[in-house]
Amino acid sequence: MTGGTAPFQSASGEGRHINLGYRLSMHIAHLPYVLPWNWSQFHQHFALRLLSGVEALEPDRYSRVVQIGRHVGWISVRPIPGQHVLELSVSDSLGEHLPTLSLRVRKMFDLDVDPAEIARHFASDRYLGPLIAADPGLRLPSAFNPFEQAVRAVVGQQVTVKAAVTITRRLVERLGENLDCADENKAPGLIKLFPTPSAIATAALENIGMPGKRVATLKRLAAAVADGALELHIDNGPDELVSRLCELPGIGPWTAQYIALRGFGEADAFPAADLGLLKAPLWGEGGISSRALRAQSEAWRPWRAYAAVHIWQNYSDAAAKPGRPWITGAESEPVSSASR
């Protein structure tokens, strides 16, 4: 075994098996943060989007399977009671990558932002000021893997979060490699890697549950990443990333901005056409147009993604009330604000 992993081994079915053998040890890092920060917001976020097999969620712990290069294993994150710290546990097979994983998890759980700075920026805004004053600790959850989030964004075009998760789970079940790991520290149910770009690009997805055009968009995205034509990074800024994504047929500004926001935790990304943003009750009965919202958002730079998070929460709080309809295409499912 090299670096704690075994070679990819053939298995029956569409998936393949990765055997990590039997493990007892793990590596731990403590990740501090500044208050206010709320575990329940992230728990709610992951609960709505959980990919069974790839991810596992307990009341006080989030876990998932990860791959860095040829190294495969798991990570687990939990808040330490009474301390302003998250504990990151990493499987022995990924131990040498603990510094890299710590940085990724800090971004994923948005531990480095200064909430006081954001509150000051929006304090005088007639729309965002009251929302942020009421919930100053709301953060920006983002994905561990940008490609995984890009897939979720394409699958999520014009459907609810629940529907998108159902389809993405099908992708995992059909195309994700199977993980065999007898590790007493691993959360139960972590048995799958998220499908690779090449697996999605070459798969027959006609019966996956999406319209043909969206299937074609997903396969084009995966093929572009697989062959290196599209590099998913934000090194040259969010505008350059959005521009590159929009060159792919089927990917427009909403999808590209959403990938920047959730895939990279870009603080100024803003999917202005999102229906949850447009129909949030703070705009009044008629909502707001995407053009007007885009103009309004200029005053919110460089923290527009945080404005989006608060507006989505405003929409979700209202949609959770009895008798309020759920809007297809909005980012947030209607959930109780008590479960943030």
From TrEMBL:
Pfam families tied to this protein: AlkA_N, HhH-GPD
SMART domains, alphabetized: AlkA_N (SM01009), ENDO3c (SM00478)
GO cellular component, one term: cytoplasm
One of the protein's GO biological processes: base-excision repair, AP site formation
Database matches in InterPro entries: AlkA_N (IPR010316), AlkA_N_sf (IPR037046), Alkylbase_DNA_Glycosylase/TA (IPR051912), DNA_glycosylase (IPR011257), HhH-GPD_domain (IPR003265), HhH_base_excis_C (IPR023170)
E.C. number(s) listed in UniProt: 3.2.2.21
Keyword Cell wall biogenesis/degradation: no
GO molecular function terms attached to this record: alkylated DNA binding; DNA-3-methyladenine glycosylase activity; DNA-7-methylguanine glycosylase activity
SUPFAM superfamilies listed in its UniProt record: DNA-glycosylase, TATA-box binding protein-like
Name listed for the protein in its UniProt record: DNA-3-methyladenine glycosylase II
Naturally occurring in which organism (per UniProt): Stutzerimonas zhaodongensis
